[in-house]
Structure formats: structure tokens, C-alpha cells
Amino acid sequence: MRVRGAVLILLFFLGAARDASAADAPCTEHSFEDTRFTVCAYDPRRAELRLAWTGRDGQALQTFDRLSADLGKTARHVRFAMNAGMFEVGGMPLGLYVESGVERRPVNERNGGGNFYLKPNGVFSQTPYGTLRIDTTEGFLVRSDRPLWATQSGPMLVIDGAFNRQITADGPSRNIRNGVGLRSTHSAFFVISDEPVSFGKLARFFRDGLACPNALYFDGTVSSLWLPSEARKDNAAPLGPMVVVLDKH
């Protein structure tokens, strides 16, 4: 009996260790409607978020290799990094970009072609107090507080629990896509599909799979993830702004 009891206790602690390890994993795999996604969770109370566009030399980073080199010793604290918004040739953000409280690119209210202009588009931001927000661009403009970090992209996928009316349920366009959704003001999910997916399915995954009432599209085709714990570093295409989440140290 003592041997059996010892075995059960050992199995219990091994299971608990596996659960703790999974809970602390930066990113996890999910399946939704027969499509695989990688989901990277962020809580500002437990980790640190930054946005990166240019390096210390003033040049656009555009790749995770250059981002890692620019971070120097801090790179060892990276939990994950992901492209975080649409950009022009050369990596310049197409819309609002705020870094460490400094607005480096203004809000883009123009109309045009392409996904960014599939209205409403929106802004992901974090306040100096660690509050996370996803607003439509119009909603962001009426806010009185100034963000510490902010990136504008589009289209909005989910708005207050409703799907963007410009997005069909499962349109013919399929791409590796990524975006960000908020479950609460302290719980964000950065998502990248592991296979080509439609806008509609990505929106449903955020709302119905991850319980996010608000979600913003970042990009497709160039969508990339750097996940050091899994030795994953996508470098298929040049990027624009990037979100970097680090362990607090």
C-alpha cells in the first residue's frame, strides 16, 4: 500500500508540474473548426509589452533576427514576438504608432483599398497603467487618455461582441493570418493561424473560441511569430511594426 501510495503521489506531482508548465507556456496550440491556431497570451501584470519598429540605428528592423540583435542581452527575456500592424514599403507603419508614449506615426483616417481600409479599422493600445484596449479608430479618437503603446491596423474583426459587417462568414480568400483579441483589460491573445484561414473564421475563433468581445486584424501573408521556447522564428517576409512580450525582470 505504501508503494502504491508513493506512486500515486509521484504521478500527482508530475501531472501538476506538467499543468504548471503548460500554464506558463508563452503560446499554446488550439484547434477551431478543423483549423489549427497558435495563441500567445499576454497579461500586463505578469509580463512586459513593447512595440518595435526601428532599431537603435534608426533603421526599420523588419525581421526577428534584427529585432533580436537590437535587443541585445534583453533578447533572452523574450516570450514571443509577432508582426503587429500593416505597413508601407520599407516597414513604416501605415497608421498610428506610439512607442514608449511617443507618437511616431499619426492616426490614419483616410479611405482607400486593401484590408487596412476595410472599415471600421482599429487601434490596439496599452495605457501607462497597464490597461489594454482595442477601439475602432473613431472610438480611439474620442478617448482622453494617451497610450504608452499603440498600433493601428484593420479591419476590426469583432466589435463589442459583433462581427464586422464588412467580413463574410467564410470568404474565398485564405491566408496565414494574425491578430489580437481582448478578453478583458488585462487579458490579450495574440493569434496566428497555422494554416490558411478566412477572415470570418479568424473572427469566430476570437469571439467564440477565445471569448474575446473585441479583436483586431494585424495582417496576412507576412504573418510571423518568434517563439524562442519552441525555437521558432518565422522570417518569410519583411515586417513592419512588431509586438514583443518579455518576462518581467
Task: Describe the protein's architecture and organization.
By secondary structure, the chain is of the alpha+beta class. It has four helices and 17 strands. The chain has helices at residues 2-24, 64-71, 137-141, 199-209, and strands spanning 27-32, 35-42, 47-52, 78-83, 97-99, 102-105, 122-126, 132-136, 149-153, 156-159, 162-163, 177-184, 187-193, 214-220, 225-227, 232-233, 242-247. The strands form three sheets. The chain has a seven-stranded antiparallel beta sheet, covered by helices on one side. A five-stranded antiparallel beta sheet has the order 3-17-4-15-16, covered by helices on one side. A hairpin with a 2-residue loop joins strand 5 (97-99) and strand 6. The chain is globular and about 45 Å long. The protein starts with a helix and ends with a strand.
